[in-house]
Amino acid sequence: MDFKKITSHAKEYGFIFQSSEIYDGLAAVYDYGQNGAALKNNIKNYWWKAMVQSHEEIVGIDSAIFMHPKTWKASGHVDVFNDPLIDNKDSKKRYRADVLIEEFMDKLETKAEKEIKKARKRFGDSFDREVFVSTNERVKGYYNRRDESASRLATAMKDNDLEDLRKHIEDLEIACPVSGSRNWTDVRQFNLMFSTQLGNIAGEEGKLYLRPETAQGIFVNFLNVAKTSRQRIPFGIAQIGKAFRNEIIARQFIFRMREFEQMEMQFFVRPGDELKWYEHWKEERMRWHLALGTPKERFRFHEHDNLAHYANAAVDIHYQFPFGFKELEGIHSRTDFDLRSHEELSGRKMQYYDPELEKSYIPYVVETSIGLDRMFLSQLSESLQEETVPDASGKESQRIVMKLHPILAPVKCAVLPLVKNKPELTEKARKMFDDLKYVVDCQYDEKDAIGRRYRRQDAVGTPWCVTVDFDTLTDDTVTLRDRDTLQQKRVSVEEVKTTLRSGVDLETTLRSI
Ligand code: ATP
Fold first, then answer.
1. What is the pLDDT of residue 309?
2. Ligand 1 pocket test target in 75, 327, 329, 380 with most atoms within 8 Å of CB
3. Where residue 204 falls among pLDDT bands split at 50, 70, 90?
4. Domains of the chain
5. How far is CA 380 from CA 3, 43, 229, 373, in A?
6. Whose CA is nearest to atom 8 of ligand 1?
7. For ligand 1, which residues put their CB under 6 angstroms from it?
8. Residue 234: helix, strand or coil by DSSP?
């Protein structure tokens, strides 16, 4: 579905609001409404249960957002957590130089894909993508130019060559989307951390940062957790929490926010074992995504051309957002970089005694890091669909439906009296709601015609609707409507409960990962 439609649907149905909207909002900061908060909690729950509950060797913690300022010196964030920024002198708009180049590369890829699509149509069943891509001069040209740009960009980023970033933008003749001009400033580095000040200490000493990642809260607690949990390597520490980055470009809705949430897990392993575990987590995290029923072709592994200062291997799971394949999750082999730096700066030993090897060492770390808000956006765009379906009278009509996995749906079941102005029906329906609300998240709704109420529930992804009518008064059965198949079954209240319980049960999904 069109991205604009997705964002306006998210607002209209209480999923996401612009922060401080009455003051015209704050760029790249968003609030989650009643349905959004529920969906977000359900995603967190699915992640936590899959990562912590399902793994005897992983424990979960909740560390503070503020940390000792030396943490960020040790982690490298004070010195190298920068983005290269460039301004257009005419529009005065600010961009990330690397993103401008990446977007240009995306355009080349889109052009190539268009040619491939056209050819597939022309050749029909006999079409061989590989042969076409390797022989068609135009498509080869697009891919070659993209690859050249990718490696030039990776080198410039690695060498911190800001001059070449600017030259690269000029060579590609990239124009500002707002002014249309190519009148660029030099490229400068911009640190992404927000800072604030402790009340009782003046100057640099009292400078605090809002954490730009949750991972450091795990590293500094490594010894505490190792000791108190009696875990033996390999073991993991997981946490869900807020992170803050002063992003230069504030576009694409909740894809890139200044305040967001991360779900991270650091897996501590023996030095030398890290690449084995890296492969393991890469596969397992992909299974976690697929277990929600999202089609495989929506995901891609994307190996990093440009490794971060702490990593010896890194891959992103890209999801096909409405604006293209983009990073949803990262799996990084972080070596012993963080623990070693903390040991050096704090003077405390960050070593683990391995009883099997009978020696101490600084463990290596494999991390899985997913943005909760990006996961939310991927589910929103994946599940929101426009369909033509028969209405109550059998005529064709349009509906907007969110086909969320029931374990993620904000409301699992809506209880609806067939009509509003019959007290015997509304009383019965209310009673039923008061009973079912202890089984799953339910909603009671009596306003408007039944067809409109169904559509309202479809629009927020409610998997089941229970309708109370006159027969219910005599035989205690109700109509159970399924959101996706639109099938309506006459069932007892006990059967409703069984369907709800099994429909939202995480067990089958967790076992399939
Ligand atoms: P990007 O390249 O898109 O800026 P990143 O590589 O800096 O992302 P990481 O530092 O690996 O991201 O962070 C781990 C995860 O946190 C990302 O995969 C993403 O899902 C999420 N994330 C990072 N920055 C943001 C942001 N500004 N808004 C929302 N989610 C974010």
1. 73
2. 327
3. confident
4. 37-81+192-388 (3.30.930.10), 411-511 (3.40.50.800)
5. 10, 12, 37, 10
6. 327
7. 213, 245, 247, 256-257, 260, 262, 327-330, 369-371, 373-374
8. coil
Alpha helices in 257-300 (DSSP H): 274-290
Note the pLDDT of residue 101.
Answer: 96
3-state secondary structure of 176: coil
Q: Whose CA is nearest to atom 11 of ligand 1?
A: 330
Please tell me the predicted confidence (pLDDT) of residue 397: 87
pLDDT at 202: 74
Q: Nearest residue CA, atom 3 of ligand 1?
A: 327
Q: Cβ–Cβ contacts within 10 Å for residue 113, how many?
A: 12
| Contact in structure between 268 and 222 (CB atoms under 8 Å) | yes
Q: How far apart are CA 256 and CA 374, in angstroms?
A: 8
Residue 235: per-residue pLDDT: 98
Provide the residue type at 203 as one letter.
G
Per the listing, tokens 């977007």 go with 103
Report the separation in Å between the CA atom of 371 and the middle of ligand 1, taken as the mean of its atom positions. Answer: 6
Please give the distance of CA 52 from its chain centroid, rounded to a whole number. Answer: 18
Residue 72, token pair as written in the block? 């960020």
**Stretch 81-100: mean pLDDT, rounded?**
93
CA-only gyration radius of the chain, Å: 26
- Mean pLDDT, range 313-339, rounded to an integer: 95
Q: How confident is the model at residue 404 (pLDDT cuts 50, 70, 90)?
A: very high
d(CA 510, CA 501): 15
Count of CB atoms situated within 10 Å of the CB of 23: 8
How does DSSP classify residue 82? Answer: E
- pTM given for the model: 0.89
Give kind and range of the element (H or E) at residue 389.
strand 384-390
Report the nearest atom of ligand 1 relative to the CA of 256: 28
CB pairs under 8 A, 24+ apart, for 480-489? Answer: 481/454, 483/401, 483/403, 483/457, 483/458, 484/401, 484/403, 486/389, 486/390
